[in-house]
User: What shape does this take?
Amino acid sequence: MENKPLVNRVAASGLITINLEDFYPTDDIVVFDIKDYLFRELILKEKDFRKALKEIDWSDYSEKILLISCSANAIIPLWAYMLITAYASPFARDIFQGTETEYIKKFFSEAIQKIDVKKYENQLLIIKGCSKKTVPPSGYVELTKKLQPIARSIMFGEPCSTVPIYKKRKLAD
Assistant: This one.
């Protein structure tokens, strides 16, 4: 019996794996809940709110992603979001009004739009399926839309077990 060298067929296949988890934001995400500044968790009093915002140490939000939301069932005037943004802008890495899920969705969409697709032109691509962090389904949709016009093929999963998604058709001569 001959001893043949082990060959990594996955490495030799030319497959390029894209892990969407690599696009995940690396900065801390913190929530600014307006509920904490409401009178009886119902009403936002402008004078009290402005005073409270002036007393916050906004440097605590340095290099963080600030999500502005209200967990109380209250009507929040639009200027309140603007005022928080004005105070936090010099410090926070990013500011978003909404939930973490909504922010992550937006973040992935923006990150995917920035991808330089030239390196993926006419390549065999695998979009990695398993990850430790939850990647929103919209990230997979955005990435497929971005890569389909230029990729030779797109698969989902792991190199050892993939689901075919797209394969460029050869034009008949």
